[in-house]
Structure formats: C-alpha cells, structure tokens
From TrEMBL:
Protein name in UniProt: Thioredoxin domain-containing protein
InterPro entries, A to Z: SCO1/SenC, Thioredoxin-like_sf
Listed SUPFAM superfamilies: Thioredoxin-like
Family note: Belongs to the SCO1/2 family.
One Pfam family per UniProt: SCO1-SenC
PANTHER family: ELECTRON TRANSPORT PROTIN SCO1/SENC FAMILY MEMBER (PTHR12151), LINALOOL DEHYDRATASE_ISOMERASE DOMAIN-CONTAINING PROTEIN (PTHR12151:SF25)
Length: 207
C-alpha cells in the first residue's frame, strides 16, 4: 500500500510541477460544498502515509491528525541563510492575506529537511524567532527516510551540498481537507495571490 501510494502521488506531482503555477483540479468540475467530518480518503491522500512526525512542541503525530484542515506546506531547514528565510516570509505573507470564511481551518506546515539539526526544541525556538508560534503554525520533523518519502509526494528535491547546507526546491503546496494535493506555486518572493485565492476557495467548501 505504501509503495503504491508513493507511486500514485509522485505521478500526480510530476503533472503539478510541469510549470510554476499549477492546479491539480484544473480540468475537473467545480467541487460542491462538503463537511470535514467522515470524509473518504482517496488513494492520493497524504493521510494514507504511515509516517510519524514530531511537532515543535514535542508531540508525535501522524499526518492524518491534520485531517479537516486546509494545509499550506513548505519544506525548509532552520539553519538555511539563503532561500528559506524568503520562503518563511512568503508563508507569513500568505497567512496574513487569507481572510474570510473558515480562516481558522488553515494549518501552515513547515517540514524540516534536516531532522538531525532541527530538533523539536530548535523548531520551537525558530517559530518564536519568526513570530510563527500561534496555533495555526505547525513545524514537523521525522526520520530521514520518512522526510525523503514525503518530499517525493510534493516533487520537492533536496540535496546536502555541505555539512550545513542543502540545495532544495522552493515550492509552497496547498492540500484540501482530504489531504489531496490541490495546488502548487514555485518561486521566491513572487506574487502568491493565486495561492491565497485557492486557499480561500477550499475554505469556502467547508460547512
């Protein structure tokens, strides 16, 4: 099941990243309103992944524990001095711009690609340093294997290029309440209005 899920998700994300701004539901009919309770999980949902993650508060969770929320996700590492500070600022900018119905149903999730350095204590300190310590902000770390596996579902590539530095993709992803990849935007310091619009569209579907 695990290998099948990764294969399906990887195929899906290859389509999503064929250009900088892509939308998984682009050719599908407009979704109707749905509740966040008792939703069926499709084979493409990240909630099928069995990995365990640790939050900045030291709490162990599975991704399915986030079900019912619209997820805005990015992969970073806290010691980064180049791209990551810009990605963090972009995430804050998106969070500030999302308004209206069900805005409290968004979780902004930052996943570490450097779990050896990014302990829960370090993630918590980083969250406070960047004014991202509210309940809407979730920082996650896991094992190297699970991190690589999750990165594959987002089509995020990263590689260690020195003892303290990584090269990595700069992609912010939106997941719907079922954990299905809905939208991605790639770049640094770009106009994230399309991402904000898609988040609000997903929020409007929640009763």
């Amino acid at each position: 099941m695990k290998k099948t899920l990764i294969a399906l998700l990887s195929c899906s994300t290859l389509l999503l990243t064929s250009c900088k701004e892509t939308k998984a539901t682009e050719e599908q009919p407009q979704a109707t309103e749905q509740t966040t309770e008792s939703q069926e999980i499709s084979d493409l949902s990240i909630y099928n992944l069995p990995s365990t993650w640790t939050t900045q508060d030291g709490k162990d969770i599975e991704l399915k524990d986030l079900q019912g929320n619209v997820l805005v996700m990015v992969m970073i590492y806290t010691s980064c001095k180049a791209a990551c500070p810009r990605l963090v600022a972009d995430m804050r900018n998106i969070e500030e711009r999302v308004k209206g119905k069900n805005a409290d149903k968004v979780k902004y999730v930052l996943v570490s690609i450097d779990p050896q350095v990014d302990t829960p204590e370090r993630l918590k300190a980083f969250a406070k340093e960047n004014q991202m310590d509210g309940p809407q902000w979730v920082f996650l770390r896991s094992t190297e294997e699970d991190t690589r596996e999750f990165a594959a579902t987002l089509a995020v590539n990263y590689k260690k290029i020195s003892p303290i530095d990584f090269s990595h993709s700069n992609i912010i992803s939106v997941f719907n309440t079922k954990g299905e990849l809905d939208y991605q935007q790639e770049g640094l310091g770009i106009d994230y209005a399309p991402t904000v619009k898609e988040i609000e569209r997903q929020l409007a579907l929640i009763k």
